[in-house]
Amino acid sequence: MPDTFQNYYSNPPTxxxxxxxxxxxxxxxxxxxxxxxxxxxxxxxxxxxxxxxxRYGVAQAIPNTVNHFNTSSIVYELSRALGARLADxxxxxxxxxxxxxxxxxxxxFVASSIDELNELRNKYTHCVQQGxxxxxxxxxxxxxxxxxxxxxPDGSIQTLNRLPPSNHQQAFPFCMSFxxxxxxxxxxxxxxxLLRFQVKAPVIFTVSPVPLHGTITNNDPRVDNMRSKSALxxxxxxxxxxxxPHVYYYPAYxxxxxxxxxxxxxxxxxxHPTAGAIDKVCRSFIDEYAIEPSEFADDVxxxxxxxxx
Length: 309
Description:
Helix content is 37%, strand content 16%. It has 309 residues and is α/β, with parallel strands linked by helices. It has a domain at 27-86 and 114-146 and 177-296: Rossmann fold. The strands form three sheets. The protein has a five-stranded parallel sheet, with helices on both faces. A hairpin with a 5-residue loop joins strand 7 (146-151) and strand 8. Helix 3 packs parallel to helix 5 (181-194) and helix 5 (181-194) crosses helix 6 (221-241). The longest helix has 21 residues, at 114-134. The chain is globular, with a radius of gyration of 20 Å.
């Protein structure tokens, strides 16, 4: 106990910073080089990090074109890639006489026929299978814990990745609910186990700063967004407390909350980060995880992001 008090009062970095530009105190392993193969999976923020690194020639173990917004959809994707027999699930929609098929577990997989949708699925699953065997760093970004759920014909409840299209032909009972911290923690442990194909490769978890688009409760969406992010952060820190070797947390969410001015953080929709804000977070990532950060000091094309609608 005396050591705790002594550390609190005599070690300034443990105190709240008076300057938000102060570097974060992280348990980080220097592992990243330009020759790394990064396996990035998760929300749209994960895709931006992958795109940022790709400008320096860092290989992407899987395409950065698919969003997995919640932990259950990440478990689903990795499990399928490693041989689990999990059913394909999709919604059918009809508009102006045209039928489209939307994958429930991947965004944005939409096709005009089941065959076309299956081709998209199979190509992506193959990429994930190859990526799990080739990566040397995994970056897993958690998006939200307010999730869609659907009752299946056998009575089981399946957590989905996305909301259905507005004109879908609903077949099964559907609802939205918050994941519990224990549910998320179990998913995170499962993700780590599935990624252990590369035994000593670092697995770095982050929480996306991108807030909810909306909510299904009577609360203000800012309140429900904090509930959603808080559950993710509590679960990931519970995972860190387990002291699993080669598993780390990178505080991207916190950097948006406590590091930069709001004017430069967000695009006009107040939800999607600006290129400048992502650039700062990624530069900090390089400072902590790159073996030689100077490798990433070369002049490359400026980072850009799609303009928010």
